[in-house]
Specification:
The protein folds into three domains: 103 residues, Helix Hairpins (Orthogonal Bundle), CATH 1.10.287; 51 residues, SH3 type barrels, CATH 2.30.30.60; 86 residues, Alpha-Beta Plaits, CATH 3.30.70. 51% of the residues lie in helices and 21% in strands. The protein has eight helices and eight strands. Strands 4-3-2-1-5 form a five-stranded antiparallel sheet. Helix 6 packs across helix 8. The longest helix is centred in the N-terminal third of the chain and has 42 residues.
Length: 302
């Protein structure tokens, strides 16, 4: 030892003692846990952005799909995109947080067990809500109906007929023709009959009395329909016809000839009412007798 060496410097020793940990241990922690956690969070962010871009492309494709109205397509696409986006974000970040907790040496077994028990309890207690939500999701995905459509739904209770006023993932609101608003849980819908898509068929049964020539009646109707095809109002409603099919049935006191026409879905009943009105007027002008039930026999003492 040098004569100038007075031993260890106490100030230097104090500085080393107060440095707050071993640099080697800190570096090891960052390599073993810190860096993997940062990479996990970064991957979660990238996955979220990428999956949201895919959901956006899916939404734009749904908006361009053929439907009864552009507004209905936009609403349907927005609802589906929101549901998918929320599910993706929750799923991705749940997995990312669990991986990060694993790197921090947190025991995940109690957490997973608790989540499993809570999931089972929620499944038993809210199974109808889950069923409603899944059914609503597939109704939107398959575009079975939309707001403004006239539909008839067969439910677990009774059939319901009306116009769709609003729709959510859980329930559908139908406004009946008498003004009643029916709220139907989506999980209770068994069969959907959409009366607002594509085309509809107007059916009018023309009844006349026995003794009239069916061919003469058919000729009168063909003449009338040829005139009506040039009518601006009826031409707007019709897509084909009207045409006479022929004698449909023969009853006790009437012969029935059936008339059909393809119409726009929203104007089926309008076309039927207008055709009945004009057919009745034309047959009366041509002297075709309407059917009348036979008079009841008079009592013997009358």
């Amino acid at each position: 030892m040098s004569v100038f060496d007075d031993g260890p410097d106490p100030c230097l020793n104090g500085a080393r003692a107060g440095s707050g940990g071993n640099p080697v241990e800190e570096t090891s922690w960052w390599l073993d846990a810190g860096l993997p956690i940062l990479l996990t969070l970064l991957i979660a962010v990238v996955a979220t952005v990428a999956l949201r871009m895919l959901v956006g492309r899916f939404q734009r494709r749904l908006e361009r799909a053929p439907s009864a109205s552009e507004g209905g397509n936009v609403q349907r696409a927005a609802t589906l995109a929101h549901a998918l986006s929320a599910t993706i974000v929750v799923g991705v970040w749940t997995v990312a947080v669990m991986i990060a907790l694993g790197y921090l040496n947190v025991n995940l077994a109690p957490l997973i067990a608790s989540a499993g028990i809570a999931g089972v309890a929620l499944g038993f207690g809210a199974q109808s809500i889950v069923k409603d939500g899944l059914t609503g999701f597939f109704i939107l995905l398959e575009n079975q109906f939309g707001v403004g459509d006239s539909v008839e739904v067969q439910t677990t209770a009774n059939p319901v007929l009306g116009r769709v006023e609003w729709f959510t993932m859980r329930a559908t609101a139908l406004r009946a023709y008498d003004g009643t608003l029916h709220i139907v849980p989506n999980g209770n819908i068994q069969v959907v009959s959409n009366k607002s898509r594509g085309w509809a068929r107007a059916i009018v049964d023309v009844r006349f009395a026995y003794g009239q020539d069916p061919e003469a009646v058919r000729g009168i109707l063909d003449e009338l329909f040829e005139e009506q095809r040039r009518d601006p109002q009826l031409r707007e409603w019709l897509r084909g016809g009207p045409n006479v099919l022929g004698v449909e049935t023969t009853g006790d006191f009437a012969v029935v000839i059936r008339v059909v026409a393809e119409t726009a879905p929203a104007h089926k009943f309008d076309a039927e009412r207008l055709l009945r009105e004009r057919i009745t007027q034309r047959l009366a002008e041509r002297g075709i007798k309407a059917p009348a039930p036979p008079a009841a026999p008079k009592p013997p003492n009358a």
